[in-house]
Write a structure and sequence with these properties.
Layout (H helix, E strand, L loop, with lengths): L5 H5 L6 E12 L2 E12 L3 E5 L6 H8 L7 E6 L8 H7 E4 L11 H10 L7 H7 L15 H13 L5 E5 L7 H16 L3 E5 L3 H7 L2 E6 L2 E6 L1 H8 L3 E8 L5 H4 L4 E9 L2 E8 L2 H10 L4 E7 L1 H10 L3 H4 L4
Parallel strand pairs: 3-7, 3-8, 5-6, 6-7
Antiparallel strand pairs: 1-2, 1-4, 8-9, 10-12, 10-13, 11-12
The chain binds adenosine-5'-triphosphate.
Adenosine-5'-triphosphate binds next to β2 and α2.
Length: 323
């Protein structure tokens, strides 16, 4: 576990820090939804909050916008206390909720125009519509939008205020691949124009693609914190290998190697298709090609998903939010 030392961020100038969680506990009866969370998010970061269902991601987001009062510890957003200085937080932070009762009879363009009118220096609604790929739906009533289009609109309602800190809670849920690309571009655009982004996600691909740093939460604690590449090197340096051997090839030699784990084999079109993980791909490669006659060898990094599994002990369903 690589929780940031408290001294590191507490010594930083406050205006470089968008968010500080300093040993935050949020208790519901006997359950600690946040169990001593300490981390900071610097201005200009795209920061990801990951974790299995119930890990404390939404609770963390709710404490930083003042919707939940921590049982103990301190939360600061641009140096402000989210509960005592709620007006400052409203001015600086916009949250895209997971669900929201939108104005069903308004069109997309009308809704964003109304939303924009709430803020002193809003983005141009047409620009937000374009950035989120909602151009074809701009005159469609909200009640007629598909789930993925409604999701884009929810993100749009957060973008329209041009917040200093944009908070997105599982923003790509239900989005098709094109919509996700638009969303990712919009998130990067927000960062490039000087904003900071905090997003919770169950998509390891999204986190690896977008986030400079991530925190993985588990049972209310930070169990990993850092850049995706760093975490992969630290927790899951193995490679995944897939290859084909002739049916009936003995795999005992592979199974007994200390660098090999998670070996599985199944018959496919008269051959045996094998997948495994190894911490020593170079030497294994030699064995596969010289002694086992392996073909169609494919390798790939284990990735953030393997890190997630190692530090949380979570299943595939946990990772993909199907729990
Ligand atoms: P998900 O990925 O499912 O959205 P999450 O990481 O956002 O999960 P939270 O919603 O923060 O998790 O919940 C953390 C824990 O706190 C869960 O066990 C949840 O049941 C519990 N919890 C959240 N809100 C309350 C509440 N108001 N009263 C009691 N328990 C709560």
């Amino acid at each position: 576990m690589s929780q940031a030392p408290r001294e590191r961020f507490l010594a930083m100038p406050m205006n470089d820090l968008a968010v500080v969680f300093d040993n935050v506990v949020k208790r519901y009866d006997r359950l600690a939804a946040m169990d001593g969370i300490t981390l900071s998010i610097e201005s200009g970061e795209i920061f990801g909050l990951l974790g299995p269902n119930g890990a404390g991601k939404t609770t963390s987001i709710e404490t930083l916008v003042g919707l939940r009062r921590p049982t103990s510890g301190r939360v600061l957003v641009y140096g402000y206390d989210p509960i005592a200085q709620r007006d400052e937080i409203r001015r600086l932070v916009a949250v895209q909720p997971q669900h929201a009762a939108l104005f069903e009879q308004q069109t997309v363009a009308e809704l964003l125009r109304v939303w924009a009118s709430f803020y002193p220096d809003p983005a141009d609604p047409d620009d937000v519509i374009g950035r989120l790929g909602l151009g074809d739906s701009r005159d469609v009533r909200v009640s007629k939008l598909s789930g993925g289009q409604q999701q884009r609109l929810l993100v749009g309602t957060a973008l329209i205020s041009r917040p200093r800190l944009l908070v997105l809670d599982e923003p790509s849920t239900g989005m098709d691949p094109n919509a996700r690309q638009d969303l990712w571009e919009a998130v990067r655009g927000h960062r490039d124009s000087g904003g900071t982004v905090l997003l919770s996600t169950h998509s390891m691909e999204e986190a690896e693609t977008l986030c400079g740093r991530v925190a993985i939460l588990h049972s209310g604690k930070v169990v990993a914190l850092g850049a995706p590449d760093e975490l992969i090197r630290q927790h899951a340096p193995d490679q995944e290998l897939r290859f084909t051997v002739a049916s009936g090839t003995a795999l005992g030699e592979l199974e007994s190697r200390p660098d090999v784990s998670e070996l599985s084999a199944h018959e496919q079109n008269g051959h045996t298709r094998v997948s495994l993980r190894t911490s020593d791909p170079d030497s294994l490669f030699t064995v596969l090609t010289t002694r086992l006659g392996a073909r169609q060898i494919q390798t790939r990094d284990a990735g953030l998903e393997a890190v997630f599994r190692r530090v949380t002990g979570a299943s595939f369903a946990d990772i993909h939010g199907e729990g």
